[in-house]
Design brief:
1 helix; mainly alpha; 53 residues; 0% strand
């Protein structure tokens, strides 16, 4: 027979899994943007040192 407590726990578990996947995706997006920013700064430093030489 249908167990309401089990159904509620399944829904909570499902929402928790979706939330965790969302947090990981946001973290990866932030890491990617930080890496792109670092790459830009490295290029700027290379250009500056090339101009000074």
């Amino acid at each position: 027979m249908f167990d309401p407590v089990s159904a509620v726990l399944n829904v909570v578990f499902f929402v928790l899994i979706i939330y965790l996947i969302s947090r990981v995706a946001h973290f990866m997006k932030d890491v990617k943007s930080k890496l792109n920013e670092i790459d830009r700064k490295i290029e700027e430093i290379k250009e500056t040192t090339a101009k000074n030489d």
